[in-house]
Design brief:
By secondary structure, the chain is an alpha+beta fold. It contains 7 helices and 11 strands. About 45% of the residues lie in helices and about 20% in strands. A hairpin with a 2-residue loop joins strand 4 and strand 5. The chain binds adenosine-5'-diphosphate and manganese (II) ion.
Length: about 260
Amino acid sequence: DKKIKRIDSARDKARAREKDSERLKVEENVFDVPTLKILYTLSNKGIIKAMGGAISTGKEANVFYAEGEEKELAIKIYRIASSTFKAMDAYIMKDPRFTNIRNNRRDIIFAWTRKELQNLKRAKSAGVRVPEPIIAEKNILIMEFMGEEKTPYPLLKNTPLKNDEAKLVYDKIVEYMRLLYKEANLVHADLSEYNVLIDPADTTPIFIDMGQSVTLEHPNAREFLYRDVQNILRFFGRYGITDKPEELLSKIQAD
Ligand code: ADP
Ligand code: MN
């Protein structure tokens, strides 16, 4: 019995080490020397006062908590080395705003980061609730932290809702999709319960993750919009929302 316990604890330690080394590998990938230099510069300028912990490790980017001058910040760092950047090509190469970027990995990632900043600005000006974008520098995007006590607001996916609350959230999301489309000339293009946060104080949705958002001139804009519509309807189906895709589309395209 004791022997088994010893083996268990040794195995747990080994696992912890393994996990640790995985974490270190990720950090090594995200905090390369050029990225560290930009972070130092931003900190010398007073934009970042203190770096905090990791919030998320995604396919292309890591998000960290940080303290800014007055506000808390979310720092999204696109990884140069290990991001699945090939997927970015299809979005950015056909975007009329980004026709003259060279076809190399770093430039595509830098353009992508600037695009996310611009998309957030356009969304915010259109009246969509998004994190306030602050600055984009190479592969680093700094924005307002949406959360409380260093903890991000929950994703829509993880927010328990009663049917009547869900209906209000749905209506607000539809309104935001319409404002994006009509006022900002944008399609989110990765909209789902994974890219909407919920402010627990008033259950308002907050759109995030707009790197891939495209203008309506993009040749795939309609296809992306239709996919967003289907994702939203699939999610809200469980709360008794019965809109058909065409109905939701016409709400988004209404004046
Ligand atoms: P990814 O491309 O990795 O999906 P996201 O922009 O969706 O990147 O961010 C990943 C996660 O980081 C989100 O699910 C959310 O939990 C957190 N996050 C992103 N932006 C913010 C923000 N401005 N404030 C608080 N948390 C954020
Ligand atoms: Mn996301």
